[in-house]
UniProtKB/TrEMBL annotation:
PANTHER family: DEOXYHYPUSINE HYDROXYLASE (PTHR12697:SF5), PBS LYASE HEAT-LIKE PROTEIN (PTHR12697). One of its GO terms (molecular function) is oxidoreductase activity. It comes from Haloarcula terrestris. Keywords: Repeat. Transmembrane segments: none annotated. Pfam families: HEAT, HEAT_2. The keyword Repeat applies. Coiled coil: none annotated. It comes from the Archaea. SMART domains: EZ_HEAT. This is HEAT repeat domain-containing protein.
């Protein structure tokens, strides 16, 4: 029976026997790899014990495969290995600081896979005292260890990692730079975010995307120019991320600054031919759960939408008029007015809302307000009739206001 068939049929004990007894390194390595797929097996405890023993073997290939499989089996499996390596009995209820001490000890192991496992584990334990030890691994000869150490430092989020992570941003390996950029974005202090700014020009697309994604965490307008530049990136993923960061930035800065930044963004977008920003803006409006993001997006759509994306934007903004958030409704209404209505599409969609008695009067009132900006003779006649027929004061009041802008009552 082949090793694949043993794994397929759940023969964990047979794979354990081969891992422990065979002299064939290739077979031992493959058995160790396959045992990582036995997380829900009745013999899981035996599987973990066998892999812990194999991870401390003399063969680099077997050790690496065993550690990878323990990682697949979960934190408890890796913790058992670390405890065995450190000579500490790490029970499930052991304090996190006790586990962290053992993991830090294994960070100095000769086998890179062990250092990788220790670095991963420290990120999950979230112990700030581990940060200095993790930063030492930023100079590890193995880039996999450097990357995982940077990732874990970012998870812990202690500011002491900021300066060492800045050095990671110049690593020769893109994977390490990516983890460094992501970690600085997670830490998010002024120094960390400042260090990300030059990375919008990194050679690696994913590094640029991660850096640009962190720009939205700023509490000021410093990254606006960088984000505008990123909107012209050759990568669609980077451009999309830049749009999301712009909206996030507008949501994070003080209100008195957000108005200025919005104006700056609109001005700079009007000077570029890249209109790919609209689709992600619509997605934010339709899918985000953050009120500030949706409000800023609704406002922006009325000022950056080109003719080719106009239909989809109108549908999204009209739908936003039915939302519970009053400010979002107001921004959507003003953006619809800003788009204009040369083809009467906005008017037709809004009249459906206005004439539907089942729609909330506040929503109908918002639609009427917009009709006062973009409507024509058809809207004037509809509102004229509505004034006499409606039972809702808010609808009548909005209709009076709108009809006065459309030429008055007939």
């Amino acid at each position: 029976m082949s090793l694949y068939e043993l794994e397929r049929d759940g023969k964990a004990q047979e794979l354990i026997r081969l891992l422990r007894e065979t002299d064939n390194e290739r077979v031992k390595t493959r058995a160790a790899e396959l045992l990582g797929n036995f997380d829900d097996h009745d013999d899981r405890r035996d599987v973990v014990n066998a892999l812990v023993d194999a991870a401390q073997s003399d063969s680099d290939a077997v050790t690496g495969a065993a550690i990878d499989s323990l990682d697949e089996l979960g934190d408890d499996a890796i913790t058992q290995l670390i405890g065995s390596m450190a000579g500490v009995d790490l029970e499930d209820d052991a304090a996190d600081w006790v586990k962290a001490k053992a993991y830090m000890q294994v960070l100095d192991a000769d086998v890179p896979e062990l250092r990788m496992a220790a670095a991963n584990g420290l990120g999950n334990l979230d112990q700030a005292d581990a940060v200095p030890k993790l930063t030492e691994r930023f100079q590890d000869p193995d880039p996999r260890v450097r990357a995982r150490a940077a990732r874990s430092a970012g998870k812990i989020g202690d500011s002491r990692a900021t300066t060492p992570l800045e050095n990671v941003l110049t690593d020769s390996k893109a994977a390490v730079r990516r983890e460094g950029a992501d970690a600085l974005g997670n830490i998010g202090n002024r120094q960390a975010l400042q260090a990300l700014l030059p990375l919008y020009e990194d050679d690696d697309e994913r590094v640029r995307r991660i850096a640009v994604g962190g720009f939205g965490n700023f509490g000021n307008d410093r990254p606006v120019d960088y984000l505008i530049e990123a909107l012209s990136d050759e990568s669609a993923a980077v451009r999309r991320t830049a749009v999301y960061s712009l909206i996030e930035l507008l949501s994070n800065v003080p209100t008195d600054q957000s108005h200025q930044i919005r104006d700056t963004v609109v001005e700079k977008l009007s000077n570029t031919d890249d209109r790919s920003v609209v689709v992600p803006l619509v997605e934010i409006l339709e899918e985000s759960t953050q009120a500030a993001q949706r409000r800023n997006t609704a406002w922006m759509l009325g000022r950056v939408t080109s003719q080719e994306e106009r239909d989809r934007v109108i549908e999204s903004l009209v739908d936003a008029l039915s939302e519970d958030d009053q400010m979002l409704r107001q921004f959507a209404a003003t953006s619809l007015a800003e788009l204009g209505d040369d083809d009467n599409m906005v008017e037709r969609r809004l009249l459906k809302i206005v004439q539907d008695d089942g729609v909330d009067p506040e929503v109908r009132g918002q639609a009427i307000f917009t009709l006062g900006k973009v409507g024509g003779e058809r809207s004037r006649k509809t509102l004229d009739k509505l004034i006499d027929e409606t039972e809702h004061d808010v609808v009548r009041k909005k209709a009076f206001s709108a009809i006065s802008k459309l030429g008055g009552r007939g």
